Amino acid sequence: MKILKLLLVFVSLIATSSPPLAGEGYFSRFYTTDTNPKGVFEIEQITRNRRDRSQGNYSAFDLRTEFECGFTDSFQGALYINTGHMAAKGAPDDDDVQGISTEFIYRVSSPYTDPIGFALYFEPAFDAHDLHNGLKYDLSFENEFRLI
Predict the structure, then answer these.
(1) pTM of the entire structure?
(2) CA angle, 37 as apex, 34 and 43 as ends, to 5°?
């Protein structure tokens, strides 16, 4: 009976949900010169799981929610909220906001209309956790620049 109820809830959720709309993000860490057209808004959720590394027994989820908007056809901005969950053997579970960041991309030339695509990328971030080892520390500020 319990399985039937769960199945009924699942089918109801599927039947009432709207179809997903997705862009063309081919790889999660691959940057292109494509920008959203003016006025186009996009929300993206990135989830990464890390578990059972060489030392210790743990499971960690890095969650990154992105709100992205095209300001012009060649310039877009985004706001990221970075959160995470870590469960480690012998330590209390930890759920925290790890930081916030913004992203700005200005497309100088497009590979579709020009011989080569070129864009400027800038991502300032405020972090409360080290992105590599997860240790907490006072807020830090970092900048990332790229030529795409």
Answers:
(1) 0.65
(2) 80
24 belongs to a structural domain: no
The total number of structural domains that make up the chain: 1
Residue 1 falls within a domain, yes or no? no
3-state SS, residue 22: coil
Q: Is residue 2 part of a domain?
A: no
Provide the CA 11 distance to its chain's centre, in angstroms. 28
Does position 72 have pLDDT exceeding 90, yes or no? yes
Say yes or no to pLDDT of 73 above 70: yes
d(CA 66, CA 76): 13
Q: Are 38 and 70 within 8 A, CB to CB? A: yes
pLDDT at 75 over 90: yes
Does residue 26 carry a pLDDT above 80?
no
Residue 12 to residue 16: CA distance in whole angstroms = 6
What are the DSSP calls for 102-142, one per residue? EEEEEEEE-TTTSSS-EEEEEEEEEEEE-TTT--EEEEEEE
Nearest to 33, CA basis, from 112, 144, 123, 118: 118
Asked if residue 7 is part of any domain, the answer here is no
- Residues 83 and 66: beta-carbon distance below 8 Å: no
